[in-house]
Amino acid sequence: MKPLEIGIAGAGPAGLAAALFLARAGHRVELIERFDTPAPVGSGLLMQPTGLTVLDALGLGPAIHALGNRIDRLHGADALSGRTVLDVRYDALAGGRYGLAVHRAALFGTLHEAVLAEGIPLRTGITLAKAETRLSRTALHDPDGEIVGDYDLVVDATGARSPLAAASVVAPHVRALAWGAFWATLDCDAVPHDPHALTQRYDAARVMIGVLPVGRARIGEGSKAAFFWSLKVAEADAVKRAGLSRWKAEIRRYWPETEPFLDQIADWDQLTLARYAHRTALPPHADGIAFVGDSAHSTSPQLGQGANMALLDAAALAHALAQAATVEEGLAAYAAARRGHVRLFQLLSLLFTPFYQSDSRAIAWLRDRLVATVARVPPAPQLLAAIVSGTLVDPFAKAGLAECRWAEAGLSAA
């Protein structure tokens, strides 16, 4: 295939990674971002072996490890009885895998600096309203109908509320999830916590409180932790009206050790309400547009796969185009490469979510008694580790990737 002119809508992790892969493959790429100054949105996230392998393929492994914090296990306990109801350890699988918790600003900054270093054009302050394909070219329009770019291929990385995906022939059905979470990014250097675990406390499935130590946003800054509390989105306003002190008191009752984190929260403005939806575009392309990341698929964050799936999409798209003779052939190959992995983890996320975010005491009762017993019996520990790692089915070969050498990468993540 001849080099393509490619417009990438959205300068989040998916768009930035796609720009790097495609530019390095010889295509003429430009990014289009609606904000005047591109910036990350949200608190912390957990990079799995899948996403870390993609960053390693881009040569960004050392940079992200210098900022992130190694996670070796996911541990959750019943807040009232202390019974362990979640215990997933990466080392249940051979090979030395681990997770890397990162501040969203760290992931964004690492990718953004690489894009700038390679001179990839980035146009900001442009809102996109629609795409129009004519004679094998796809034009992007702003809300006034003006053409802001005309390309051989458009990559849509504008997220779960993408207007391009919503207007496409593969527009996915959007199922808004009832449960969301309050998130805050807090200092953790002087706060007692498990530095190498995602730690959570539960009351049935209605209450979930978590602490994820995410390292630093930038070199020279102090270490941070993402603190979150699960709730129904419809109840968020009522919680706020009841007052910050009452909310803190409830958390202290469940988890007194979080007091040093709660002391740092003085205003509701420090908390971000995250909302989630389940959606999948099948196939993830239409009319000269390839959808990647949340514009192609999104779901509950219970398995921590969102950013990792987005990075895999970017790698798989570039690999598919490199093997194809035409854009159409490349898009079909991209869809085939990601189909099985995306469908599996979308399904698993839907199945796991009620066990940790729901009103069902029966499901929570089943979770609390099964995890402490069955999950310890092989092959359950290995199966859970593979699910969390994102490797229950191999996502690497079809994306043209070789899995990261964990023993070497782990030296800087210990």
TrEMBL record:
Swiss-Prot/TrEMBL cofactor(s): FAD
Keyword Lipoprotein tagged: no
Keywords: FAD, Flavoprotein, Monooxygenase, Oxidoreductase
Tree of life domain: Bacteria
Secretion signal span: none
Residue ranges annotated for the FAD-binding domain, each copy included: 6-342
Keyword rRNA processing found: no
Pfam families for this protein: FAD_binding_3 (PF01494)
Protein name per the record: FAD-dependent oxidoreductase
